[in-house]
Design a protein that fits this description.
About 40% of the residues lie in helices and about 10% in strands. By secondary structure, the chain is α/β, with parallel strands linked by helices. The chain has a single domain, classed as P-loop containing nucleotide triphosphate hydrolases (Rossmann fold), CATH 3.40.50. The chain has a seven-stranded mixed beta sheet, with helices on both faces. It is globular. About 5% of the residues have low confidence. It binds adenosine-5'-triphosphate and magnesium ion. Adenosine-5'-triphosphate binds next to helix 1 and helix 10.
Length: about 290
């Protein structure tokens, strides 16, 4: 079973939309998928249950010690189940303490839930845009992360913080668990439009991350909002559109494991390099051999 967190420290970049559509695309490839909505706002779950997600979910599994399968809800798509955040997820994340103050096994809560789970080929976590203790616990649990990036000004600003976290979590995972390092299985550029700034930032993102960036980008389209309001994944709402193709290609690359990398170790004297000055082309990320 593979597990992937769709994550970015920045808000509104298409994390939930990507989680919804990656899940739907993987089901088209005959995989059994569990989409876990780990953001208290519940946007990923609402993408499948537009009239409101069930009140019981991830929070209850964490607080009551039940399994993820106990709180999974079937969607109308065979092979795709959703774990809603649960009404208590906000409190639950707060009670996990500060990101630095994790301890007493809290960082392994999600890992324990995943270990007890069977019956799925892929588990996808949608995460909130902040580096909360819950998100750290997710990074301890999953095997890989997918980073959606919206090519607007400062798109790379949040990436440094996320990379540092991935690096730290990876080191701790290797030292304290049998989980292995945390891989970045891809970077997906979303909400691309025809503006010059969008083109420039797409080039900057490709230059920075190198081969782990998916070739196809997800264009900006009003159809996303229409699909979301109807509780239908975009890949079904606009089956033949460019955005659907991009999400299917991302799902296919994910299944083939074509793209995967870890952040390069921080080089000496590299600390104060801002996101506007991103160093050598393609130097940070290498595809797994
Ligand atoms: N390619 C796209 N084109 C146009 N609109 C999009 C696209 N992708 C996502 N959206 C819309 O942009 C908004 C934000 O997307 P989404 O909720 O997926 O971002 P997010 O990163 O999960 O946000 P948050 O950080 O708040 O959780 C939503 O209204 C969504 O429908
Ligand atoms: Mg979201």
């Amino acid at each position: 079973m593979r597990s992937v967190a769709v994550t970015n420290a920045k808000g509104g970049v298409g994390k939930s939309t990507t989680a919804i559509n990656l899940a739907a695309a993987l089901v088209e490839f005959d995989r059994r998928v569990l989409l876990v909505d780990a953001d208290p706002s519940g946007n990923a779950a609402l993408g499948y249950f537009p009239r409101g997600a069930p009140p019981v979910g991830l929070a209850d599994a964490m607080l009551e010690g039940s399994g993820l399968a106990d709180v999974a809800v079937a969607t109308e798509y065979p092979g795709l189940d959703v774990v809603p955040p649960g009404d208590r997820l906000g409190n639950c994340s707060d009670q996990m303490g500060g990101v630095q103050g994790l301890g007493q096994g809290r960082e392994f809560r999600i890992r324990r839930l995943l270990k007890g789970l069977t019956g799925y080929d892929v588990v996808i976590f949608d995460t909130s845009p902040v580096l909360t203790p819950l998100n750290v616990a997710i990074l301890y649990a999953v095997s890989e992360i997918l980073i959606p990036i919206d090519p607007c000004v400062a798109a790379l600003a949040g990436v440094r913080a996320l990379e540092d976290l991935v690096r730290t979590v990876s080191e701790f995972r290797l030292e304290f668990t049998d989980a292995g390092p945390l891989a970045i299985s891809g970077v997906l550029i979303t909400r691309v439009d025809r503006t010059l700034v969008s083109k420039q930032i797409e080039a900057e993102v490709r230059n920075y991350f190198g081969p782990i960036v998916h070739d196809l980008v997800v264009p900006a389209s009003v159809k996303f909002r229409e699909a979301y309001a109807r509780g239908v994944p975009l890949i079904h709402y606009d089956r033949l559109g460019a955005a659907a193709s991009a999400y299917r290609a991302a799902a296919s690359a994910f299944l083939e494991g074509r793209r995967s990398a870890q952040p390069a170790p921080v080089a000496a004297g590299d600390d104060d390099e801002g996101p506007g000055d991103l160093g050598e082309p393609d130097s940070r990320y290498r595809e797994a051999s």
